[in-house]
TrEMBL record, chain A:
GO terms for biological process: cell projection organization; microtubule-based process; positive regulation of smoothened signaling pathway. Keywords: Cell projection, Cilium biogenesis/degradation, Cytoplasm, Cytoskeleton, GTP-binding, Microtubule, Nucleotide-binding, Nucleus. Belongs to the tubulin family. It is found in: Cell projection, Cilium; Cytoplasm, Cytoskeleton, Microtubule organizing center, Centrosome, Centriole; Nucleus. Residues 47-247 form the Tubulin/FtsZ GTPase domain. One of its GO terms (molecular function) is GTP binding. This is Tubulin delta chain. PROSITE patterns: TUBULIN. The keyword Glycosyltransferase does not apply. Its main location: other. It comes from Nannospalax galili (Northern Israeli blind subterranean mole rat). The keyword Nucleotide-binding applies.
TrEMBL record, chain B:
Keywords: Cytoplasm, Cytoskeleton, GTP-binding, Microtubule, Nucleotide-binding. The gene is Tube1. It is found in: Cytoplasm, Cytoskeleton, Microtubule organizing center, Centrosome. Residues 49-277 form the Tubulin/FtsZ GTPase domain. This is Tubulin epsilon chain.
Length: 479, 475
């Protein structure tokens, strides 16, 4: 089953390129640490998921590139053409001449309706080239005008047109100390609109990834290229193929939703579809990670984080990695360094520690649902029991429903062992609260509002967005 | 990719414009080695087959045949424009895109605005429409003029209203040269005051510049470059005032060096829109981010570095120095001290081999030394363009919407009042049809209202930042 990626705006296109590049490099990596058959199954699954075949053999990314001005798309296409290992479809781009000017209202109210037909047509064409569609990735930033405004509009249209397919938005949160002055306005408008039409958002904060580059990867002069590569690594470690169940050798067909079980080979389409139909199990992943529409914000953590040079000199145990990952989860650590080991889950049987205040330091990060993905040597021996502790979760889901684990022996990106955690938890409450706070302060002074009302976004729309997001913050705090 | 049209009005406007086109050609020649007419060049130049007579000569792709500037040159006396057309840049300008007269405006805003405005309205419209037709997607008009004279000030601001009516969707960026306190034109306060009202009402964004600051910067460069104090030598082409290597060979006029600084400003402003980079910033993003309220659209600019040392390896300390300098009052293009006033918004446009971590590090470092308005504590807009200016490995343009622009306006008002109270020279203006004393009164009240807005913002400077109480929702 395939995923169609929509890359929006400068950020979306720059990241999209790195993601496809990372997925491709990994799938063709010779150090898979597994048998040849496993490696081939992995490659085939990755290819079907993210690429399609062309007659002369160079794989084509299943992607649609959208931007309101041409420079970035041109750059992205030429980068892919230069590397010559994979490429973008010839007619997969939509471009205009003048950008959105960092104006959410312009992206949403002007560019959206004006170009809806052309963009949706491009997406439809890409969807038709999939044997079966799993869903959509929409990669966008929140701070600018195109990714944020046009992104919100397109996600809504995807919801209307493909209501049965899953939509996951990869959203980039800007640096706290400003990349764009009106970024907080653009962010609240984006998030509130996406909350109504997306299935889940996978959120990456520039500040966090920057710190990972600085502290863990030891990069001296960090460029957006570095940041995007770390991001791509995180995403790849989540979305590359994994086994559908313990002990079987066949890759999960649907990365976003339904599991499949079965002894047939992955590329025998008919039989696997059949098996799909008969052996549909409960365990729809999205349903588990997003059990309630009020809670859609997902964060990613991965471990180990280190530069390629250090890789050769390090060995890890699953026990060690999982212990760190679990502590990162419960102490809300953003990266593998400076983890606060003081934080402990509340003793079971006792009531939870009361309403979370956004300012409390030692707060324990309660989860709604978690997914752990393990890749590498001896993965079958990895013990994830500690993640099933009910104390980690809210009371309304049983840990067996709130926690899932995917595994594969095949190593990712030359990491002998690596673990990723996709978590629906209180990870993002504080950053969201800060953005809402700053936007609110600015809104109170009415600064910049004239730029939005010029294109049809009124003060009422702002208020609606604030209300929705305050609700989200409160809900997460009360978990 | 979008296009911009430069409208240069009056002696000052045309002289600066000339320097701008010279530098623009130099920059594109350095970047575009293969001579292919691409999107970047098309933002300021048309590609024309000069053998074709009339309008049909535009070539949109392929090799560069003959570049024509997207410019309209306006002056009410012929001297300056004629000199340009006889000079080395004569082939760059389309001879049909000129409007000239003989007698000049006599340093009288009313003559420029009312008399010549009415006389040449149709012609101006026609030339502007022509230049717009030659554009695939016109985004911006850059108007260059001085405030103190008659043509640039009067006719230049008349233009603004015309542009607003005819091309409401296209941005109007105005580069205005404000008179220094020792300006030799006696009526410059009148002209500037009357022009200010027009700028307040019809410009999207104004970059005020004054000659004194430009002169100080030049003196500073000269003293450093010629003193021999530095161990290493300065790269000659990198000096921000130099036209070395360009078509114009020498600095014949005293203002040339100063004009080059302004030309550099305009090039750097548009660099991220023309060239690629990891964080692009288009022209429409400038007003989106830097103009929080429609009337407060005056941006103080500073350019660094002013020269580059021959040392190729730039240690981070020197890079950081570039950022620090951008906020020092010696580098601002008007007499202003942004550090000690209140920031409403600030944009940093970086060119060259600078990455996001350098930018972030410097913002973190400089933020505590600057005061931002309470509702925009992190009011930074940043852009990274990969292509550096000619002769430099990196450069920074800082645009600040800051209350430090207030003293310039207050001084202007004061000089105006000194003249106006005595009714000195007023009859020259009142003689012109359409001018009345109320025109002056309105201009003063427009400026006073603007100053009052800045005063109110300044008053919030010392107050502690309090968060506005948030919405309370039921869960």
């Amino acid at each position: 089953m395939s995923i169609v990626t929509v890359q929006l705006g400068q950020c979306g296109n720059q990241i999209g390129f790195e993601v496809f590049d990372s997925l491709f490099s990994d799938s063709h990596c010779s150090q898979g640490l597994c048998s040849k058959r496993e490696n081939e199954a992995y490659q085939a699954s990755c290819k079907e998921r993210f690429f399609r075949e062309e007659k002369n053999g160079i794989p084509i990314a299943r992607a649609v590139l959208v931007d309101m001005e041409p420079k970035v798309i041109n750059q992205t296409l030429s980068k892919a053409a230069q590397a010559s290992r994979w490429k973008y479809g010839q007619h997969a781009c939509f471009c205009q001449k003048q950008g959105s000017g960092n104006n959410w209202a312009y992206g949403y109210s002007m560019h959206g309706p004006r170009h809806e037909e052309s963009i949706m047509n491009l997406i439809q064409k890409e969807v038709e080239k999939c044997d079966s569609l799993s869903g959509f990735f929409v990669i966008m930033s929140m701070a600018g005008g195109t990714g944020s405004g046009l992104g919100a509009f397109i996600t809504q249209k995807l919801q209307d047109q493909y209501s049965n397919s899953l939509k996951m938005n990869q959203i980039i949160w800007p640096y706290g100390t400003g990349e764009v002055i009106v970024q907080n306005y653009n962010s609240i408008l984006t998030l509130s609109h996406l909350y109504r039409s997306s299935d889940a958002f996978l959120i990456h904060e520039n500040d966090v990834v920057h710190k990972i580059c600085a502290k863990r990867m030891n990069i001296k002069q960090i460029s957006f290229s570095n940041i995007n590569q770390v991001l791509a690594h995180q995403l790849g470690s989540v979305f590359q193929p994994t086994y559908s169940s313990e002990g079987s050798f066949h890759y999960r067909r649907n990365p976003l939703g339904i599991y499949s079980l079965g002894p047939e080979f992955v590329w025998s389409l008919f039989t696997t579809l059949l098996i799909h139909a008969f052996l549909f199990l409960t365990g729809d992943l999205m349903e588990h990670l997003v059990p309630h529409p009020e809670f859609k914000m997902l964060g990613v953590r991965n471990i180990p984080q280190m530069s390629e040079n250090s890789l050769a000199y390090s060995t890890f145990t699953w026990a060690g990695l999982l212990k760190h990952l679990r502590q990162m989860l419960i102490s809300n650590a953003k990266m593998e360094e400076g983890i606060n080991w003081q934080v402990r889950p509340p003793l079971s049987g006792l009531p939870p520690l009361g309403k979370m205040s956004v300012n409390k330091e030692l707060h324990f990060n309660t989860s709604i649902a978690n997914l752990v993905i393990l890749r590498g040597k001896d993965v079958l021996s990895a013990d994830v029991e500690a993640f099933k502790d009910p104390a980690l979760y809210t009371s309304w889901l049983e840990p067996v429903d709130a926690f899932s684990v995917w595994k594969t022996q095949r190593a990712f990106n030359k990491y002998e062992k690596c673990a990723a955690l996709v978590s629906n938890s209180q990870f993002l409450v504080k950053p969201l609260d800060m953005i809402v706070g700053k936007a609110w302060n600015m809104f109170a002074s009415k600064a910049y509002i004239h730029q939005y009302t010029k294109f049809g976004i009124e003060e009422e729309d702002f208020l609606d967005s604030f209300t929705l997001l305050e609700q989200v913050v409160a809900s997460y705090c009360n978990v | 990719m979008t296009q911009s049209v430069v409208v240069q009005v009056g002696q000052c406007g045309n002289q600066i414009g000339c320097c701008f086109w010279d530098l623009a050609l130099r920059e594109h020649a350095a970047v575009n080695q293969k001579g292919i007419y691409d999107d970047a060049i098309s933002s300021f130049f048309r590609n024309v087959d000069t053998r074709v007579v009339g309008d049909g000569g535009s070539i949109s792709k392929g090799k560069i045949s003959s570049l024509k500037a997207r410019a309209v040159l306006i002056d009410m006396e012929e001297g300056v424009v004629n000199e340009i057309l006889q000079g080395p840049l004569r082939d760059v300008f389309d001879s049909k895109q000129l409007i000239t007269d003989i007698s000049g405006s006599g340093n009288n805003w009313a003559v420029g605005h009312k008399i010549f405005g009415n006389l040449y309205r149709e012609q101006i419209l026609e030339k502007l429409r022509k230049s717009a037709e030659h554009c695939d997607c016109l985004q911006c008009f850059f108007i260059i003029h001085s405030m103190g004279g008659g043509t640039g000030s009067g006719l230049g601001t008349f233009l603004l209203k015309v542009l607003e009516d005819e091309f409401p969707e296209v941005y109007r960026f105005v580069t205005s040269i404000y008179p220094s306190s020792e300006d030799d034109v006696i009526t410059s306060p009148y002209n500037s005051m009357l022009a200010m009202k027009e700028l307040n009402e019809h410009a999207d964004c104004v970059l005020p510049i004054d000659n004194q600051s430009l002169f100080d910067i030049i003196s500073k460069i000269d003293s450093v470059v010629n003193s021999g104090k530095l161990g290493t030598t300065v790269k000659p082409k990198s000096v921000i005032t130099s036209g070395a290597g360009a078509i114009k060979k020498q600095h014949k006029k005293p203002f040339d060096a100063m004009n080059n600084i302004v030309a550099n400003l305009l090039l750097n402003l548009t660099s991220s829109a023309r060239f690629e980079g990891s964080l692009n910033m288009d022209l429409n993003e400038i007003s989106m981010n830097l103009v929080p309220f429609p009337q407060l659209h005056y941006l103080v600019s500073s350019l660094t570095p002013l020269y580059t040392l021959a040392d190729v390896n730039i240690p981070p300390r020197r890079l950081d120095q570039m950022f620090s300098d951008a906020f020092s009052k010696d580098h601002q293009l008007i007499q202003a001290d942004p550090r000690h006033s209140l920031y409403l918004a600030c944009a940093l446009m970086v060119r060259g081999n600078v990455q996001i971590s350098d930018l972030r590090r410097n913002i973190e470092r400089l933020k505590p030394t600057l005061q931002f308005v309470s509702w925009n504590q992190e009011g930074w807009k940043t852009s990274l363009c990969s292509v550096p200016p000619v002769g430099h490995s990196h450069s920074l343009l800082a645009l600040a919407n800051n209350t430090c622009v207030k003293p310039t306006f207050m001084e202007l008002r004061e000089r105006f009042m000194r003249l106006y109270k005595k009714k000195a020279h007023l009859h020259h203006y009142l003689h012109v049809e359409g001018m009345e004393e109320s025109s002056f009164a309105e201009a003063v009240s427009s400026l006073s209202a603007l100053i009052q807005e800045y005063n109110e913002l300044d008053a919030t400077k010392s107050m502690p930042v309090q968060d506005v109480p948030r919405l309370i929702v039921a869960v």
